[in-house]
């Protein structure tokens, strides 16, 4: 789908891309020149002041404070943000602890057994991060045990308006909220609360922080950027600011555990981009929760130093390798089942599968692979403790949370947001749920929705793709959800040399493409199989993502798709 314009005299490549994205004038300048001053006032965040004041009292009175995090990257980084903030305010001996549930043994979110155990251990304040907005029973239990429960979350609140009866609920979408941006992730919410905590506890009468606290807030942006990218929230508004400035803090972070993770991921000495988080750092952190216990990742980002930090970081690498192997096996099985059960055709517009032997920590990733392949929502379930539990992922045209809500009569529990969710159900409800959910998807989606769009910003000529022009385009970084990487259409371009291959197995393709002027080397990952299909002199249309080679410093676009002209 071409969303941009033809090459226009007087308009640079960047200007055409901005126009294609509906960004002109002040809005375009705001996108290109966003600063930390564009972050919203944390006092507007519902519940932030009440939560902050209670936490400060707890620190002054040396009351035990437990940060209860989720086991994904968002929850891990949100936990780290509040841990370092509270220790900075209360001192290194402040009684601040962390707790993260075991994905397989306890499942997602607050659970009654954990709350009872933490209360028995003396907890006076429990603060959740990246979970809790549906935990009404758990909030009641905490109150009965004399524990002040503070909930910080970003997931969709229940549509019936019910809210846990907690001491405070910090949520940008809380009822009556005037917060100007509702798309924060859990780490983003934790970061804004951390900011408010530091101002109340350490700020002067004008709210100005001492130098060390300002520097801490800047350093914590590294964790917030990890959570923001990994949770696939839109990289617009203050999410863009958090990510833009947080990524730059990662390579030289003051937190040794984060530096060790960068090293174990093979990123030493490199500038960290959003893709590095999505494909290298994030998967290692998630693998910990999926294949082992996310408490290790929390330790890495909070208290681990030196040798211990290196051991954890290297262990995350090994767990990620195990996760990849397990993922490939489940994906092959899921594709075979989906095709055998007719869930990949136009008459069944959702994939819902269950298998007794699938690894519960990996099914969510496999859902994403199925969505990419078949362009429809996917839910995968596996058997645990006599119930089916699992995860779902969706496409932009389908609100997954709404789909689960519409079929909740068959579910024991569910939660999440528009694009991703978790659920559980009794075995007897499996078949009715599958039928109900697929029927709902069939009514909500058209066959046109079941197509993966490739959106192109604008037409371009090879001679336009100079290093300076591409560096201008890179001012739009970081790319991600809501701010996709720039794609250009090279139309009617000639293959200027014989196609080549590269890589240890020769599985990547190298093409020199040329308009009337300059020839440009382009690469296509995993495109080596096309070598014998293409030949010098042929005319093709190619959709490319602009890149500059880290080796040669020359423009070397990546081919995302192509066709004969």
Model description:
The longest helix has 35 residues, at 306-340. The mean pLDDT is 94. Strands 11, 12, 13, 14, 15, 16 and 17 form a seven-stranded mixed beta sheet that branches. Strands 2-1-3-4-5 form a five-stranded parallel beta sheet, with helices on both faces. Helix 3 crosses helix 7, helix 7 (186-202) packs antiparallel against helix 8 and helix 10 (256-264) packs across helix 13. It contains 17 helices and 17 strands. Among the domains are: 13-21 and 457-564, OB fold (Dihydrolipoamide Acetyltransferase, E2P) (Beta Barrel), CATH 2.40.50.140; 44-208, Alpha-Beta Complex (inorganic pyrophosphatase (n-terminal core)), CATH 3.90.1640.30; 341-450, Diaminopimelate Epimerase, Chain A, domain 1. It is an alpha/beta fold and 565 residues long. The protein has helices spanning 13-20, 25-32, 48-60, 73-90, 112-120, 136-144, 186-202, 211-230, 237-247, 256-264, 274-291, 295-302, 306-340, 363-374, 400-406, 430-444, 467-473, and strands spanning 65-69, 96-99, 125-129, 148-152, 168-170, 351-355, 378-384, 387-393, 413-416, 420-426, 458-460, 488-495, 500-502, 508-514, 519-524, 539-545, 558-564.
Q: Biggest sheet, open or closed, and with what strands and sense? A: 7 strands, mixed
Rg, rounded, reads 25 Å
The proportion of residues in beta strands is 15-25%
State the end-to-end CA separation: 16 Å
Q: Quick check: average pLDDT?
A: 94
Report the CATH topology name of the domain at 44-208: inorganic pyrophosphatase (n-terminal core)
- Spans with pLDDT under 50 lasting ≥5 residues? none
- Name the shape in a single word: globular
């Amino acid at each position: 789908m071409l969303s941009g314009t033809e090459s226009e005299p007087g308009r640079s490549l960047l200007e055409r891309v901005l126009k294609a994205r509906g960004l002109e004038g002040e809005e375009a300048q705001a996108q290109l020149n966003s600063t930390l001053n564009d972050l919203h006032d944390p006092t507007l965040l519902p519940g932030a002041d009440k939560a902050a004041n209670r936490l400060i009292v707890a620190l002054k009175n040396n009351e035990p404070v437990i940060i209860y995090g989720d086991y994904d990257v968002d929850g891990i980084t949100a936990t780290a943000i509040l841990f370092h903030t509270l220790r900075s305010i209360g001192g290194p001996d402040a009684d601040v602890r962390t707790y993260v549930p075991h994905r397989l043994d306890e499942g997602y979110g607050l659970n009654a057994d954990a709350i009872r155990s933490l209360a028995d251990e003396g907890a006076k304040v429990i603060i959740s991060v990246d979970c809790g907005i549906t935990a009404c029973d758990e909030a009641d239990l905490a109150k009965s045990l004399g524990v002040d429960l503070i909930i910080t979350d970003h997931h969709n609140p229940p549509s019936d308006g019910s809210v846990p009866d907690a001491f405070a609920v910090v949520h940008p979408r809380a009822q009556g909220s005037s917060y100007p941006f509702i798309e924060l992730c859990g780490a983003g919410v934790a970061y804004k609360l951390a900011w408010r905590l530091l101002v109340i506890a350490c700020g002067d009468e004008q709210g100005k922080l001492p130098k060390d606290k300002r520097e801490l807030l800047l350093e914590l942006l590294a964790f917030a950027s990890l959570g923001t990218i990994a949770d696939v929230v839109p990289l617009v508004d203050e999410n863009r600011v958090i990510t833009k400035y947080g990524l730059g803090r990662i390579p030289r972070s003051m937190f040794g555990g984060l530096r060790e993770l960068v090293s174990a991921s093979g990123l030493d000495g490199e500038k960290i981009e959003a893709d590095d988080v999505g494909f290298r750092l994030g998967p290692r952190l998630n693998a910990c929760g999926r294949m082992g216990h996310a408490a290790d990742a929390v330790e890495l980002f909070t208290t681990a130093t030196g040798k211990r930090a290196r051991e954890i970081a290297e262990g995350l690498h090994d767990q990620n390798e195990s996760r990849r192997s397990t993922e490939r096996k489940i994906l092959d099985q899921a594709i075979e089942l989906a095709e055998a059960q007719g869930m990949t055709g136009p008459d069944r517009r959702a994939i819902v599968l269950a298998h007794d032997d699938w690894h519960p920590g990996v099914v969510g990733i496999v859902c994403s692979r199925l969505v990419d392949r078949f362009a429809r929502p996917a839910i995968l379930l596996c058997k645990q403790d006599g119930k089916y539990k699992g995860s779902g992922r969706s496409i932009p045209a389908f609100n997954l949370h709404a789909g689960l809500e519409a079929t909740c009569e068959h579910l024991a529990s569910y939660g999440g947001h528009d694009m991703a969710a978790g659920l559980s159900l009794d075995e007897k409800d499996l078949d009715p749920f599958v039928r109900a959910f697929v029927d709902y998807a069939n009514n909500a989606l058209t066959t046109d929705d079941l197509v993966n769009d490739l959106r192109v910003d604008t037409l371009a000529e090879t001679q336009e793709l100079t290093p300076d022009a591409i560096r201008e385009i890179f001012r739009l970084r970081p790319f991600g959800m809501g701010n996709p990487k720039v794609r250009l259409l090279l139309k009617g371009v000639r293959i200027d040399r014989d196609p080549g291959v590269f890589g240890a197995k020769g599985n990547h393709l190298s093409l020199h493409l040329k308009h009337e002027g300059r020839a440009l080397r382009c690469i296509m990952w995993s495109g080596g199989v096309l070598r014998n299909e293409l030949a010098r002199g042929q005319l093709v249309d190619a959709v490319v993502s602009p890149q500059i080679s880290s080796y040669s410093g020359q423009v070397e676009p990546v081919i995302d798709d192509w066709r004969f002209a």
